[in-house]
Amino acid sequence: MGVTxxxxxxxxxxxxxxxxxxxxHQGKRLILDTIGNAIGxxxxxxxxxxxxxxxxxxxxAESTVLVTSTKxxxxxxxxxxxxxxxxxxxxxxxxxxxxxxxxxxxxxLALAERDGxxxxxxxxxxxxxxxxxxxxxxxxxxxxxRPDGKLFFxxxxxxxxxxxxxxATGAARILKLSPAKTLSxxxxxxxxxxxxxxxxxxxxxxxxxxxxxxxxxAQNAVTAALLAEAGFTGDRDIFDGDARDSKANWWNMxxxxxxxxxxxxxxxxxxxxxxxxxxxxxxxxxxTHGALDGFRKIVAEQGLGAEEIQKVxxxxxxxxxxxxxxxxxxxxxxxxxxxxxxxxAMSALRxxxxxxxxxxxxxxxxxxxxxxxxxxxxxxxxxxxxxTDQVVANEFVTFPYRVVVRARGSxxxxxxDFALGDHxxxxxxxxxxxxxxxxxxxTEQGIAAGSVQRCIDAVMTLESHDxxxxxxxxxx
Length: 476
What we know:
The chain is an alpha+beta fold. It has 2 domains: about 270 residues, 2-methylcitrate dehydratase PrpD; about 130 residues, CATH 3.30.1330.120. The chain is built from 19 helices and 10 strands. A 4-stranded mixed β-sheet has the order 8-7-9-10. It is globular and about 70 Å long.
């Protein structure tokens, strides 16, 4: 069996009962988190524009669009809900892989609702979608060290286009496709994946798609699965082959400098990547989170008022400067998510963490502008070396930082290797109560107060529901 065959067999043959209890529980936590992110994302202008455009396209009323409670076709519902879920950049992540849960959930949910699936079926499909997507993303090697010691990042900078396979996996599982049709689904998804967009991950200034068109990937994946269900064929060994033999595998085509296809299948069903998923407390790029933690710790311990802060210096890996996260200028919501000075200012002013960090009233507010001007980012040679070595080894776990705050004529410091929400340490790992608290903070202005607890209950008892109405009825 080739890599593609092994993945298809895993998707089709894995029984709900064989998935470990802790993996299923992690799946529910991630589902709750990505629903909360989507409800919070409704506050953004980009998401509202996407919903407005989708509303003009019609579509059979089969699948629910979050917050609005309207129904449309599975493809359009997947597009709409993905637009909401990726709007705040508060989605879960694994550093050397990326964001996976929203791609795993919304195509899967759209078809599961249409087909009257049970909570167990949705949960199993989500977990498998996450697992397959994460493994395909991890098998692509983004950076290689050449014999002369120089790093090669590839000409495209790769990106997140592999996430279409998480979406395709969930869709194929819900449709109960045969292995042959699942192979076609993966092949069709691979052929319709976005071009690599990594080299466009830059600012100023962002647009509403930011760095990757997740919503288009979700829509394409649903279409791929429905085509395969009807008998339409796709490339059935999309992950097999070698460019040196004139038959590139998907990673070759996607612009990765190197890949390890067999790693995508290693220990399938025993080693679960989903266990390593990290949660993001802040609506901003993960590379801002460690420094944010350090800054917030200093402010809390010293009881600093925003007016007392004279300077904030952040020392970390070159990644922050390479992606221009040091820019203080903000003129759109996405700029807020990718500006270290802006999120530091939001924390200094004690704006509650959540969608309001992106609110337009703060973009040119004099107090916010003044604080953003006091933040400066610097490259730490030791942090940069640590991150580089991890990325080359394809084991990106830590993102070291040091924060120095000058206030009251004194300097206060904080440093660390991990950020709040990281799975890798007991101190940073999110507990159930942390996931639920974030959900409440992100949804309190998006849906009725009574729906918040109902949604929490529906997700955390998902396996007990014979259909999904207890969940979808909460989305208004």
